[in-house]
Each structure stands twice: as structure tokens, then as C-alpha cells.
Write a structure and sequence with these properties.
Layout (H helix, E strand, L loop, with lengths): L2 H11 L4 H28 L5 H26 L5 H20 L5 H23 L9 H7 L4 H5 L12 E3 L4 E3 L4 E3 L4 E3 L4 H31 L8 H33 L4 H8 L1 H20 L1
Antiparallel strand pairs: 1-2, 3-4
Helix pairs in contact: 2-3, 2-4, 2-9, 3-9, 4-5, 4-9, 5-8, 8-9, 10-11
Length: 300
Amino acid sequence: MSRLATGLHRLRRSSSSPWEVLWSALASCGLVIFSQLAVAMVPRLFPSLSLLAMLPIAGLVFLAAIVLGRLWRRFIGVAASAPLFVLFNILLLWGVYVFVIRRDTSSLLDMLLNAECALLLWGLYRILSGDPGIVACDSSYLEEAGCKDFVEAIYPSEKLPMLSRVRQCNWCKATIRGYDHHCPAFGTCIGQKNHRLFMALLTGFVVAESTYTMCSTKYITRCINSGTLRSENPVSLNLVISTMLFSILQVVWQVVFLMWHIYCICFNIKTDEWVISNFPCFGLFLHQLQVVFSLAVSCS
């Protein structure tokens, strides 16, 4: 990790004490457990429904659980972390697979899923600790970019080439070369230096969750066909169904998101530029929302 990335990494955590970080981790872990247990109530309350019919109900229950969890955290004054929420979800899926589903999985799928989960954790660490392409807007950089001042470097005019595409992120207050967007799930900007890692990580999530769905489907099918559905631990079985529904919901929106980024790569488009050029009012609203959010975080 470069010195500049290390400095930003420390800056983001300079205002947080170890106890605040610990409480944030506990809040994120609690939110994951609460949301997954809420989704696990769907097969318990609606056992006669098919898995396809349970899917939209599980989506609504998951969103309601997230909203309730955020209201509760706001009430007790504890902030959670989106990257930790992603991390604990990976660990939960991996744990359910190892302790419940693994015995009904072939050796090839077992090795594949374990490798995919391990690579996801490694990729998550790399994108959180890496440098997205932060630039120091000093005189040497301005001369290199051919700009007269800092504002012109961030918002290039028609005379300047758009190769560097330097933008300032309103969430991180950092200036990023090749800025595409700020990813709330990973808690970092996506820029020139980590865009490939972001695409690989997004693809890895789709592949790993699809593999988990395949393994959990085989487990549920085995329970139905062997007639041991009633003898299985209802808590573990409902947890397998709920995590499978969660994985399917994740794959649905992640595939759409992945297709969008592949389209942007093919036509040399940046997400931030596309939003501002096609929806200027929405871009302005998003900018104001980010400013308000940043002020709220700094004051909390």
C-alpha cells in the first residue's frame, strides 16, 4: 500500500477510537444476524410456498430488517460499517456451508466454493487497503494535466483531454484519477488503480453466490427426496433456505450492475460522467445529498 493510501486510511480512522470501531463491528455483525434470521422466518411461516414464491417475500423482509436495524442503531447512537456488513455476510454464508451443506457437496464443488470465499475475503481486503488512484493536486500535477488551477483539474473544460478524468469524491473528500463512482458497499472510491480489482471482485461475488445457491439447492433437494425433511434441524434448514434466497437476490442485482460496468468499459464511459450528463438534476441532487450526508457524519 502506497504512502498516500496509507495516509488516507489513517485519516478516515483518526476520528474513531478503538471502542467506536469495536461497537461498529458489533453493530454490523448484529445487523447481519438480525437480517438473516428475519429472512429465515419466511420458510418457517410459509412452508407451503415454493422457493420462487418465497423470493419476493424474502426481499421485502430483508429490506424491512435493514431499515429497522438502521433505526435501532440510530436510536442507540451506534454506527455500522457497510464493508463490515459485506464481510460478515461472506463469513455467514461460508459458515452455513461448512457446518450444514458441505456433507452433501461433491469434492470439486467443495474445493471451488472454499477457494471462492477465500478469494473474496482477500479481494475485499485489497480493495479496502489499496489506493484507488488518489492524486495530490499540487503544482507539479497541474502542470502535468495542463490545468491552470485546482478547479479546472477536477472539472476539465472542453479544451482538456478526458484521459485522466480526475474527480473529487464528495464522500471521501479525496481527488481520484479515473474516478468512476464511490462504492458504499466497499467504503472506497473506484478509480484508475482499483477498477480492475472492483470488476474482479464483483464477478467473484456473482460466481461465489451462484455456487452457494447450487450447493444449497442440492442440500434441500436431498432432504426432500430422501424423506428426511422433517427429521432435519428446522433451524439449520430454514437458515439454508434463507441464505439461498439471499444469495439469489444478491446475484440478480449484481448481474445487472456487472453488465452496466461491462457496457461502460466497452464504450469508455464513467458512471459519474454518465449520471451528470444524462441526469443533471439527479446529479445535482446526489451531490447535495452527499454533502448533507458528509456533514451529518462529521457532526455525529
